[in-house]
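Sequence in, structure out.
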Amino acid sequence: MKDLEGLYEKYNENGLVVLGFPSNQFNNQEPGTNEEIKKYYRENMNIQFPLFAKSEVNGENTNKVYNFLKSEQKGFLSEKIKWNFTKFLIDKNGKVIKRYAPTTKIHTIEKDILKLI
């Protein structure tokens, strides 16, 4: 999260927006309420980019945003989100450019961002 906040701070003036969608579908990592999650990230990690309501990213009740993202950029072997911190890069026209695994290093994402701004 801190790395994403760093990108947000560094490139926000160039049009980069980072959007956070908490999900509790991965080993109970986001068990709190929306307010508790937002408070935790704001106070403990100084996260300033927009955080949305906790939602599902897989299954019958998948957030519509994730239905779209997954349909545009499939993951390795399936479109299912396999773990928290899967990231998507979207251009200013709403085209999904790339999907990143949770383990993708932030400098790799930054290089792709620089190609768009």
